[in-house]
Amino acid sequence: MKPGSLRCQQQRSYNPQTGQDRNQSCQSSLPRNFRTLLIKMPRSRSRSKKKQSGKKWKESSKENNVEVSNTTISEVRTTAGVIYEVSTVGANSEVPPSPLPLSGQPGSPLETEALVTCKVDYNSSSEVSTSNAQLKQHLIEHHCSLVEEKAGLSTYEIKTKDLHKDEDHKIQVMTIGPENKEAINSVLLLGETGAGKTRAIDAMINFLFGVNFEDNFRFQLKDQVDSDDLLVVESQTEYVTAYIIYHQEGMPLQCNYMLIDTPGFGDTRENYEKIAIERMTHFLTNDYGIDDLNCVALVAKANQNRISAHHKQMLEEITSVLGSNIGDITQLLATFASDGTASVGDVMRHEEVPFVNIYQLDNMPLYVSRNDDSIGFIISCLQPRWASMVKEYDRFFKDLHKFSPVNVKQTRDLLMEKKLLEEVKRSLMRNVQYASALDNTVREDKDSLKDMKIELNGIKYIHLEERKETILEYSEDNYHFHNCKKCKKTCSKPHKNIGAGEIVGKACIAGISTAATAAPLTKKLGAPLAVSVVTAVCTGIASVAATACELGICSKFPLSGHCIKCGHRIAQHKREDAQYILMDKTEEVIDESLKYDYDTKAKEITQLEEEIQQKEKTLNQHRKDLWDDTKALVQHARKISSLRHRNLNPELLIDEFIMLEKEDVNIVHLLKKVKEEVAAMTRQQIGEEGSW
Length: 692
Hints:
single chain; 692 residues; alpha+beta; Rossmann fold; eight-stranded mixed sheet; 13 helices; 25% strand; disordered N terminus; disordered C terminus
């Protein structure tokens, strides 16, 4: 055997598809003075068997669906007394190398056989290799467009399908491959502009589709966003872009992946950092098809010697959004790691940035053609760098399964509850301020109303005036008066009224006297004396009735002419059983100017009373809203406590408000009442459901 060559001792493997055993051997050439032996393992879907010296064939053990087989290396001629590393290269990945001690002089055969334990995935088979080649060919022919061809290497852009497109928040979710219902492992990539996120994602895409170093093609993703405006071309990095890569037959890893590219931070444009954080937060807090987050990948250059303020701010925002345990799934992707060192890890630790593992990614060989000699590399140099790149990505994706993902749905629910809590807090504080201000206004209005009523009562637009008034006063005795109706005066003293008997008596006396006087004449005429007497009496009655006043009652009143007392005609006088008297009388007099002031003030009072009534109605509504907000505050605090498994005391939230508003006595007084209600509700809930 030539120096630098090796041969695997013949192995026997069992093919479950054919039910047959078959012998396999592998042989590989080793470049002189090169320290890595690549042993190509059998590519068949089989349960390999091994043979150790002097022992029978027996099946290999299995660990997590990975086949472990022991291979005996013999007949190796060393080129130097060094320790070689042996690793296996399957159809889809390269496992970490293990040291292989080789003894003897350079060029001499290995004196003893060395036993090397190798791990081989079950999918490392010729069938998978064939289906992988078919998958890549199908992808190129039907789902790609050629973007560049240089030095025998073709670069194809994979066509994606839009699943979500949110132009307002600059968020898009795109898929590659037919959808399936399997779980999705998601990776959120964060990094400064220029850190190499885009190249890392392209490298992941090539790894997930099983692109080999020997392939004369590479894949990449589109770096621009289609716009309805043909004149506008937006960079993909302006968006939060999630790529869902669905597993297809022939892909090395049997899992779906979501790679989430985020806007690079450290951009100097105004408000760019704030906008980028808002977009990322919106993506994580809304349903865009991600329920679990398996990894937060911090992408940074391997030789980066400091952490910028933007970097810290972004990490703080992510922590505030996803929770403090986000460090348990945070990985550091050190890009441009061409020399095997990554000082950025020490920088991150010094800045107390939590992360679990560091992966040194040298993505330079990704788009370098093996036929391109202008870059000064030879195939023997590019291939190990490619192998190192594949090894790190293989380790990265396999490590995703080792850690418990952060439940983004639960985080989303938590964030939604926090958002609702913040809205309730704002509403509660707004209602407290409104209620306090309105209550203060109502009190002031009521004080003003009281003053206005006092002022109203002080306006005396009605006053009393004393004056003399002539009235008729009726006599209760049997008297009468002669009153002048023109001047409303009584022009006679009270005269006793003459009764009917007195009048008849006087009439009879007058009649008899008249008859006696007239008797001689009656006798001469031959008339009877009795007739003469009767006639005389009747005449006397008429005379007395006609001249009653002249018979001693109203002797001062003539029958005609003018009254000697008031001077008015006797005809304007009237005999009445009442007399005019002059009395003092009090009369209300209205001051029209003062009455106007009174009416105006009364109207203002009525209007203010209506306003107070309306304000009290509004105040009652704010108090009801405040009660609802208080109840909602307790409920959201309870839900948040349940989601994050840590008590959030709503009374402490009210205490924060009290501290902020400590200068306003009214608001503090109302907030203390709210706190009492919160405490009562909390005690009731704890009593009903136990401690939170």
